[in-house]
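Technical note accompanying the year-one report. For the benefit of new consortium partners, we illustrate the data format agreed upon in the data management plan: each record pairs a sequence with a structure-token string. No post-processing was applied to the example shown here.
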Amino acid sequence: IIERTPVGVVSTKAGFSLVDAAGVVLGTTAEAPKGYPVIEATGGAGSRAFRAVGAVYRSLPADLRKQVSAMSATTPDDVTLEIEGADVLWGSAEQPVEKARVLKAAIVARPPSKVEQYDVSSPSALVIR
């Protein structure tokens, strides 16, 4: 038995499907379930880009996870999150602890309402736009 934990929602022809990090559909509804980010990944659910998005989401501390409204990736190395309207260029799923630490500090220093983009893809060289 494998316990499936939802990580987000994907838009399908049937509605909005709640999915786990591997892209397994856990349920579909007409409206997007609240509390889960919308996921867009090239190749769809189960693709390498999708799995990278799921890995990033699972690696986030709970307080950051609650703030994520959308996630996307075209490749496993360009994961992007959206937090309160600001984009977070995460990059690959590598160094999640360090990236989360840097992002938290950046959010405290400059809240998303005043930022267009946080780039933590290289956590030793944070860029805020």
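Partners are asked to follow this layout when depositing records. The longest helix spans residues 96-109.
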